[in-house]
Amino acid sequence: MDQARHDTLVRQLARRRREALAALWQIEALAAGETRLIEGDATRIKHRRRERLKYLSDCYRAELAEIEQVSERIQQRIYGNCRSCGGEIHLRLVGVVPKSELCGNCQAVADRAARMAHRSEVEANS
């Protein structure tokens, strides 16, 4: 991976990390406020909202963990090449799915194979 590509990946991941952290902080602030508001008949509604906030918080925590793993692979210069064909993973794909290990073509092949396997399994169970 050349230096320009490396720098672009680092910038993209830093931006995604900032966005995920900002969203996580907002969600946790909302959740903290919810714990103080639970009283009376609104308890059930607020409990559901708290569950949704926890789910969102867990999603952003998982995304941050993925970003950290990708950052480590970038620093070690082992990130950016498809594990299937060895070709470069396009920077736009990395911006959408930071943990991408397959290039767009190989991912499409893998997705098709997974769909076909799922269809076969459904048909076998029918």
How would you explain this protein's 3D organization?
With 126 residues, this protein is an all-alpha fold. The chain has 2 domains: 1-79; 82-126. It is built from 4 helices and no strands. It has helices spanning 3-37, 43-75, 91-96, 104-125. Helix 1 packs antiparallel against helix 2 (43-75). It is flat, with a radius of gyration of 20 Å. The N and C termini lie far apart (48 Å). The mean pLDDT is 80.
Top keywords for this entry?
mainly alpha, 126 residues, 4 helices, flat, 76% helix, 2 domains
Distance between the termini: 48 Å
Low-confidence stretches: none
The backbone outline, from C-alpha atoms, is flat
Q: How many separate structural domains?
A: 2
Using the CA coordinates, give the radius of gyration.
20 Å
Structural class computed from helices and strand pairing: mainly alpha
Percent of residues in β-strands:
under 5%
Q: Percent range for helical residues?
A: over 70%
Q: Main sheet?
A: none
N to C succession of SSEs: HHHH
Give me the number of helical elements.
Answer: 4
- How confident overall, as mean pLDDT? 80
For the secondary structure, the number of strands is 0
Helices and strands in order, then pairings?
Blueprint (H helix, E strand, L loop, with lengths): L2 H35 L5 H33 L15 H6 L7 H22 L1
Helix pairs in contact: 1-2
